[in-house]
Design brief:
Layout (H helix, E strand, L loop, with lengths): L2 H8 L6 E6 L12 H6 L8 E6 L4 E3 L2 E3 L6 E5 L6 E5 L14 H4 L3 E3 L5 E3 L1 E5 L1 H4 L12 E3 L4 E4 L2 E3 L5 E3 L3 E5 L2 E4 L4 E2 L3 E5 L2 E4 L3 H5 L23 E5 L2 E4 L3 E2 L8 E4 L2 E2 L2 E2 L3 E3 L2 E3 L8 E5 L10 E4 L2 H4 L22 H6 L1
Family: Belongs to the pectinesterase family.
Keywords: Aspartyl esterase, Hydrolase
GO molecular function: pectinesterase activity
Length: 341
């Protein structure tokens, strides 16, 4: 199905596009000064494509929510080489207006609940670790939380601490993105395809060494290659996984994770999550993952299921997330290009 047909299938009334330019220096007459203000003025359940243009190199210090009632929203930098930055500094322990901890669901810098969301050339950042001068953070510090379905991220950077990317649920596509975090920094129950991404561990060893070791009954894991059509899982293709220290604490044990044609520079060790707590596995080696034609010194240190092509093919393309029906080859910029893709 070609891109034009995909758009028409998604929404026959999507021919008209609304473009908003957002700059903190704008006057009332010039346009919106914050991303939140622009999103608030999008009509609920609109079938138009709303494109929010951010000024390259500009820091937008705000917490952003794209609610379920705002589908077909695109956020992009006008200069992807010098991307706009959306940044905030909440953690799971930050107290909300009700004086209760926000928890991981409420602490992300950017939360996307809507469907058909697109981001292009944007940095999503949680800078609480930098603000604390690399002291131990209080729980998760996510930069991006995604729970709407059919979301795409092109050339974006996601930077945070523990739980930097909360890939919570839905079908998602990450293309040529950079993801940086400390431990458990890509997690969730979504079904996502990561292609040509760079994944960087920036471990705070002081924080990691304080984590308890999992009790034996929790230190059990299933074969991650068993991904049923309706279940979540992460497929990493032609990615680079690297970072500081001897090991990379990328995600959680039990989350199906498949790596293909990927450079694995360090040993990948999944943490264990149970009832709101995270643990180090009792045996720090021999963790299981599934691979197909991967390479790198980290691959030699992990026990991995080597897939045959017939087993791997399901994970090697956007068919893994039914992407042929909704992924656009390039992010739309205006009505003309939207209709001529």
């Amino acid at each position: 199905m070609d891109a034009l047909r995909r758009i028409r299938t998604q929404c026959s009334a999507q021919a008209n596009t609304v473009t908003n330019f957002i700059n903190p220096t704008n006057s009332e007459e010039q346009g919106y000064r914050t991303i939140g203000e622009s999103i608030a003025n999008i009509p609920d359940d609109s079938t138009k494509q709303y494109i929010l243009i951010l000024s390259g190199g500009t820091v937008y210090r705000e917490k952003v929510l794209v609610s379920k009632s705002k589908p077909f929203v695109t956020i992009r930098s006008d200069d992807p080489i010098n991307p706009a930055i959306i940044v905030w500094n909440d953690t799971a322990a930050t107290l909300g207006k009700d004086s209760k901890p926000l928890g991981v669901d409420g602490s992300s810098t950017m939360t996307v609940e809507s469907d058909y969301f697109i981001a292009y050339g944007v940095v999503f950042r949680n800078d609480v670790a930098a603000a604390a001068k690399k002291k131990k953070a209080e729980g998760e510090a996510p930069a991006l939380r995604v729970l709407g379905t059919k979301a795409t991220f092109y050339n974006c950077t996601i930077e945070g601490g523990q739980g930097a990317l909360y890939d919570q649920m839905g079908l998602h596509y990450f293309k040529s993105c950079t993801i940086r975090g400390t431990i458990d920094f890509i997690f969730g129950s979504a079904k996502s395809f990561y292609e040509d991404c760079t994944i960087v561990s920036v471990n705070n060893m002081e924080e990691i060494m304080t984590l308890p070791v999992a009790p034996p009954q929790l230190d059990i894991h299933d074969n991650p290659i068993k991904v049923a059509p309706g279940e979540g899982g992460f497929s990493f293709k032609t990615c680079t996984i690297t970072g500081e220290g001897q090991q990379i604490f990328l995600g959680r044990m039990g989350t199906p994770s498949i790596y293909s044609y990927t450079q694995i520079a360090k040993e990948v060790v999944p943490i264990i999550y149970d009832k709101g707590n995270i643990f180090m596995p009792s045996n720090m080696t021999g963790r299981r993952c599934a691979t197909f034609k991967c390479y790198g010194p980290g691959l030699e240190k992990i026990w991995h299921v080597k897939l045959r092509y017939a087993e791997a093919i399901y994970f090697l393309g956007t068919d893994f997330i039914n992407g042929d029906s909704w992924i656009l080859s390039i992010p739309p910029t205006d009505a003309e290009t939207l209709l001529s893709v």
